[in-house]
From TrEMBL, chain A:
It comes from the Bacteria. InterPro entries: AAA+_ATPase, ABC_transporter-like_ATP-bd, ABC_transporter-like_CS, ABC_transpr_CbiO/EcfA_su, ECF_ABC_transporter_ATP-bd, EcfA2, P-loop_NTPase. Its EC number is 7.-.-.-. Coiled coil: none annotated. The keyword RNA-binding does not apply. It is a peripheral membrane protein. GO terms for molecular function: ATP binding; ATP hydrolysis activity; ATPase-coupled transmembrane transporter activity. Forms a stable energy-coupling factor (ECF) transporter complex composed of 2 membrane-embedded substrate-binding proteins (S component), 2 ATP-binding proteins (A component) and 2 transmembrane proteins (T component). SUPFAM superfamilies: P-loop containing nucleoside triphosphate hydrolases. This is Energy-coupling factor transporter ATP-binding protein EcfA2. Keywords: ATP-binding, Cell membrane, Membrane, Nucleotide-binding, Translocase, Transport. Its main location: membrane. ATP-binding (A) component of a common energy-coupling factor (ECF) ABC-transporter complex.
From TrEMBL, chain B:
It comes from the Bacteria. Keywords: ATP-binding, Cell membrane, Membrane, Nucleotide-binding, Translocase, Transport. Belongs to the ABC transporter superfamily. GO terms for molecular function: ATP binding; ATP hydrolysis activity; ATPase-coupled transmembrane transporter activity. This is Energy-coupling factor ABC transporter ATP-binding protein. Gene3D superfamilies: P-loop containing nucleotide triphosphate hydrolases (3.40.50.300).
Length: 282, 277
């Protein structure tokens, strides 16, 4: 499903004299079946933006189109279930939302809520626990006996169990160790290759460079840049204004340039950086 | 320098667990050191710090803090010397204002009001949060919340601060302010820092890295020596340092030394190679 924001503004205090704009006139197209990263400093409007996609928040003005559905300031809360089934959202620290007595029941909750039968939900739980890299033995355990990383996986399995076409991830790897982070990111990449649209909010620019097809940069509620990561990280205006930090490889290239190396464009991955260096040294 | 923490042949198994969480761990930590404790999830890092703070009792072995053996009699004395900053900034607040929150630990110690106000102001000064003292802690950013949590710990004048992944839930800016603060505090005061972390850039700030694996200490050295492990660091819950990842991609084509170089050293080396061309 293609997602389009058209002149979307979201004001948090409509009635206050100083309107607090969470989103300020944002127009953005998020392409179907692509892996799109949303970046920006804390408070820049990233989370506010994605919460409009499944109508957890509604615009103060403007429209959001998700596939064939249109969300406007007038959209009412009835009939949002199909939208929320299609657009799955993994919040920050999703493990804090686990509540059932077994892992299986927790994963089954979503599908049952969207009308699946007991058997279908059970089958989904078994499939999803494997998909997130855990053994089916865990299904009968209490989610609260698991480690932090395992709880995170169970929470993600719960969102996946409703088989959303679009998956929104709000910093899904925060607080995980590097191996856990890599595994979770690879899982999302796999889901993307299987045809799901992935929208990832992150502070980790290396993950953006390594995994995303497209990216959008937010600052003070405004969209200040968007496009392919290679082009966006080479956009001087964004860097000069401190709206964007660089992946490690690009930072390293910048420092090498100070010593006398020359890069016509900043490399954004280690592989790109290494091949540039080889050409310049040999 | 004298040892502030001295651990000898420590063993611990959780009730009903099949494997030992801590196996024969001995560790001496000198005053004013910043020590990183690293290891995969489940390697025993948090168990070790719980043992040090007396939250759980070892099956065998001994722990001495500041020359005092940890026992049922000494536990409160020892706990007053240790402050812990936890991972989730939202789970550490009890007060309605920043000021109340920092005062909480002192109130527990029964400090007179007048002195308490002074101590709280001083602690908030140290973490550069004095302007926020009347704010609701929930209105602060993650980095600000952790700084207030640190002020709460500092107010009780501990000798040891244990950071239990305390920057892992923060954004890059918040993480930097907290790390700058800890570094500054260690320089100014006689604090010993024990930091459990998965963040390689955080370990660079420490003098020593202790690696735990399956409850045992498997490596214990200065950061440069530990970083020599390169890609193997991922087995211990750390990321490979960027310079080492880049070097392994360059090695086939360029003549580079085998050991670890930090980013600055690698840049110099690359520049020399380029100049010779």
């Amino acid at each position: 499903m293609e997602i389009t924001f058209e002149k979307v503004t979201h004001s948090y205090d409509v009635n206050s004299p100083v309107a607090n704009l969470g989103l300020d006139d944002v127009s953005l197209k998020i392409q179907d079946k692509k892996f799109t990263a949303i970046v920006g400093q804390t408070g820049s409007g990233k989370s506010t933006l994605v919460r409009h996609i499944n109508a957890l928040l509604k615009p103060t003005s403007g429209t959001i189109t998700v596939g064939k559905r249109v969300i406007t300031p007038e959209t009412n809360n009835k009939n949002l279930k199909p939208l929320r089934k299609d657009v799955g959202m993994v919040f920050q620290f999703p493990e804090s939302q686990l509540f059932e007595e077994t892992v299986e029941k927790d994963i089954m909750f979503g599908p049952m809520n969207f009308g699946a039968t007991q058997e279908e939900a059970k089958a989904a739980a078994e499939e999803m626990i494997k998909l997130v890299g855990m053994d089916t033995d865990y299904l009968q355990k209490s989610p609260f006996d698991l480690s932090g990383g395992q709880m995170r996986r169970v929470a993600i399995a719960g969102v996946l169990a409703s088989r959303p076409e679009t998956i929104i991830l709000d910093e899904p790897t925060a607080g995980l160790d590097p191996v856990g982070r890599r595994e979770i990111m690879d899982l999302f990449k796999g889901l993307n290759e299987d045809g799901r649209t992935i929208i990832l909010i992150t502070h980790n620019m290396d993950d953006v460079a390594d995994y995303a097809d497209e990216m959008a940069v937010m600052n003070h509620g405004k969209l200040v840049g968007s496009g392919k990561p290679f082009d966006v990280f080479n956009n001087q205006t964004l860097l000069d204004n401190d709206w964007l930090t660089l992946p490690k490889s690009a930072q390293f290239a910048q420092d090498l340039a100070k010593k006398g190396f020359a890069f016509s464009k900043l490399p954004i991955t280690v592989t790109q950086l290494a091949s540039e260096i080889k050409q310049q040294v040999r | 320098m004298e040892n502030i923490i001295s651990i000898k042949n420590l063993n611990y198994t959780y009730p009903e667990a099949k494997t030992q969480a801590i196996k024969d761990v001995s560790l001496d930590i000198k005053k004013n050191q910043w020590v990183s404790i690293v290891g995969k999830n489940g390697s025993g890092k948090s168990t070790l710090t719980k043992l040090v703070d007396g939250l759980i009792e070892a099956d065998s072995g001994s722990i001495e803090i500041d020359g005092q053996a940890l026992s049922e009699e000494s536990i409160w004395d020892i706990r007053s010397k240790i402050g812990i900053i936890f991972q989730n900034p939202d789970h550490q607040f009890v007060g309605a204002t920043v000021e109340d929150d920092v005062a909480f630990g002192l109130e527990n110690q029964g400090m007179p009001k007048e002195q308490m106000v002074k101590e709280v102001d001083h602690a908030l000064e140290l973490v550069k949060m004095a302007d926020f003292k009347n704010r609701d802690p929930q209105s602060l950013s993650g980095g600000q919340k952790q700084r207030v949590a640190i002020a709460g710990v500092l107010a009780t004048r501990p000798q040891i601060i244990i950071m239990d992944e305390s920057t892992s839930m923060l954004d890059p800016e918040g993480r930097q302010t907290v790390l700058d603060l800890v570094q500054d505090l260690r320089a100014k005061q006689d604090l010993t820092i024990l930091s459990i972390t998965h963040d390689i850039s955080e370990t660079e700030l420490s003098q020593r890295i202790v690696v735990l694996n399956a409850g045992r200490i498997v490596e214990d050295s200065d950061p440069a020596t530990i970083y020599n492990l390169g890609a193997d660091l991922t087995h211990f819950g750390l990321e490979e340092p960027f310079s080492s990842e880049l070097m392994s991609q360059l090695r086939g084509s360029l003549e580079l030394p085998t050991g670890y170089l930090n980013e600055e050293e690698l840049m110099d080396k690359l520049w020399k190679l380029r100049s010779k061309k």
